[in-house]
Amino acid sequence: MNIVILGPGAVGSLWANAFLHAGHSVSLCSRQSAKQLSIQVDQYNAALFANNDKQSIQDADLLLVTVKAPHVITALTPLLPQISPDCMIMLMHNGMGTAEDVIEFLPNNPLLLATTTHGAYRESSQRVLHTGLGTTQLGGYNDKGKQCAFLEEVFQHALPEVKWNHDILHALWHKLAINCAINPLTAIHQVTNGTLAQEEFSLLLSRVIDEVSQILTAEEIRLSKKQLEDSIFKVIELTAKNHSSMQQDVFHRRATEIDFITGYLLHKAKHHNIAATENTALYQQIKQIEQSWNHE
Ligand SMILES: NC(=O)c1ccc[n+]([C@@H]2O[C@H](COP(=O)([O-])OP(=O)(O)OC[C@H]3O[C@@H](n4cnc5c(N)ncnc54)[C@H](OP(=O)(O)O)[C@@H]3O)[C@@H](O)[C@H]2O)c1
């Protein structure tokens, strides 16, 4: 297949390399102006990829978008004239809400969503470390996207484990719900995920989960409050020593993905007339932290 990776950061580089080794023709689209980019994953030989090549975009069978959620539209817009209506577009990032915008720009393309638990760390612009094996779930967002289940085999062959999910929105909501509970709190208090198991967070966490659960129910996501609570505390336990992506973004003073995590939740809460006081407070605290960097 002809595959273009838009946003070859940690996750994008991992997939670019995996697809190349699986025998596909892979090129990149990045913010860098160089015509070619070299990427090395772990200790393997570095590979050279074409970068921002218009012909490769026109020929692409699959455009895998691995920029962070706030950058999806900005990154896609300049490519629109080149994207063929048959090109499958797959969004792979944390958070939700971008597909609703992408479909406005590309109404005729197959649109797919993905979520991954692989760990990747970008040591430098040319070197990425695959820090943890994980699972990737893929699924269609629109009708054309739902007809692309064959991609499960393509992705599985490149970087296992991969599962096609007929209800990818359910998987994304589940992940979003967990992120809403863990990410803002760990970012505000600058603590590891495991710290949230301590008594001092128990009441607040329980209120946050209660609100998230009400919104999931209103969205007709089949996940009971007990199931949600269990999965949140399982993640807290299994990733006790880890720092959430939002904790790291705040630590490094990078814009967070809050608008596409808690922000998306609050957007849905408003739609259903659900108060979501605790999640609103967490959202505002993260926004205040981000704004404080501009005033220093
Ligand atoms: N890393 C992980 O282990 C992991 C695991 C699961 C999920 N995720 C999620 O996956 C997503 C990507 O994460 P990541 O860790 O790969 O982030 P990342 O390393 O920051 O990669 C994002 C890439 O997008 C590029 N980009 C931004 N705007 C662009 C534009 N307008 N045009 C082209 N490229 C653009 C960035 O370029 P610059 O280099 O110029 O900034 C960067 O290379 C996030 O939503 C993250 O939460 C990450």
Residue runs with pLDDT of under 50 for 5 or more positions: none
Shape: globular
Distance between the termini: 48 Å
Number of helices: 12
The CATH architecture designation of the largest domain is 3-Layer(aba) Sandwich
What level of helicity do the residues show? 40-55%
- Listing every helix as H and every strand as E from the N terminus to the C terminus, the arrangement reads EHEEEHEHEHEEEEHHEHHHHHH
Please give the CATH class of the largest domain: Alpha Beta
**What is the CA-based Rg, rounded?**
19 Å
The total tally of domains equals: 2
Strand content: 15-25%
Widest sheet: strand ordering = 2-1-5-6-7-10-11
Structural summary, described in words:
- With 296 residues, the protein is α/β, with parallel strands linked by helices.
- The chain folds into 2 domains: 2-166, 3-Layer(aba) Sandwich (Rossmann fold); 170-294, N-(1-d-carboxylethyl)-l-norvaline Dehydrogenase, domain 2 (Orthogonal Bundle), CATH 1.10.1040.10.
- The protein is built from 12 helices and 11 strands.
- The protein has helices at 10-21, 54-59, 72-76, 98-105, 143-146, 151-158, 168-189, 202-218, 225-238, 245-251, 262-271, 277-294, and strands at 2-6, 25-29, 36-41, 47-50, 62-65, 88-92, 111-116, 119-124, 127-132, 136-140, 162-164.
- It has a 7-stranded mixed β-sheet with strand order 2-1-5-6-7-10-11, sandwiched between helices. It has a 4-stranded mixed β-sheet with strand order 4-3-9-8.
- NADP nicotinamide-adenine-dinucleotide phosphate binds at residues 6-12, 29-31, 66-69, 71, 74-75, 93-94, 116, 119-120, 122, 245, 257.
- Residues 6-12, 29-31, 66-69, 71, 74-75, 93-94, 116, 119-120, 122, 245, 257 line the site of NADP nicotinamide-adenine-dinucleotide phosphate.
